[in-house]
Design brief:
8 helices; 25% strand; 9 strands; 230 residues; two-stranded antiparallel sheet; globular
């Protein structure tokens, strides 16, 4: 049994699509489940992140709490008068499902330190409450990513949380100077770049997503930035 927690350096970096790709790859080796502890911004007809993961990957996904306002979970819950589960409650739910699945992938809400409950606990505390889990950080190639990524990794390291590697989400088809340089500089953290997911992958059908996803996963040499296909 393994538990992977997917967090992002910011909102909108492609965390849900990365989660779908990771889940699809894991499902080829055994039973896999995706859990989204809290989903905000569910006031309209837009599909949930869990629904998108299943649409793209075919892997079952569930959400523990849904909130209407597109805000941090504790803020959205406070405005609606909703009592949130604690991080300990989320960990118990995840551990229960882990008994019947080889791999659990947990998609966080927003970035690493967004509050998940009314006690101020975050995805970082959730990872700490799940011994043996590892974190995948989804980042981008846009300006500001080096700072956002460094801060996220520093917060994880200071808490002794294992980081499996980085995923670069929503890679544009044509890279400008900033994207090319950032792609190289992200490797200088000494962590593997697990995958590079192209922009627009979330609009694919499941058939296309399944056919294409394997080529997004890469090995990466942290010394010189050379990408080698897995």
């Amino acid at each position: 049994m393994s538990i992977t927690i997917v967090t992002g350096t910011d909102t909108g970096v492609g965390k849900t699509i990365a989660t779908a790709a990771l889940a699809l790859r894991a499902s080829q080796s055994g039973s896999t489940l995706v859990i989204k502890p809290t989903q905000t911004g569910m006031s309209g007809s837009e599909p949930s992140d869990a629904a998108e993961v299943t649409r793209l990957s075919g892997v079952p996904a569930l959400t523990t709490v849904t909130l209407a306002d597109p805000l941090a979970p504790d803020t959205a819950a406070r405005l609606s008068g909703t009592e949130l589960p604690t991080v300990r409650d989320h960990a118990a739910i995840i551990n229960e499902h882990a008994r019947t699945h080889q791999t659990l992938i947990v998609e966080g809400a927003g970035g690493l330190l967004v509050h998940l409950d009314h006690e101020g606990n975050t995805i970082a505390e959730l990872a700490m409450a799940l011994p043996g889990s590892q974190v995948v950080v989804v980042t981008s190639l846009k300006l500001g990513t080096l700072n956002h990524t460094a801060l996220t990794l520093e917060a994880l390291t200071r808490r002794d949380i294992e980081v499996a590697g980085l995923v670069i989400g929503s890679v544009p088809a044509k890279l400008g100077l900033a994207e090319r340089c950032n792609r190289h500089d992200l490797s200088r953290h000494g962590l593997p770049i697990l995958a590079e997911i192209p922009a627009g992958a979330g609009a694919m059908t499941r058939q296309l997503f399944t056919a294409a996803h394997a080529e997004w996963f890469t090995d990466h040499n942290p010394q010189d930035g050379t990408k080698v296909s897995s």
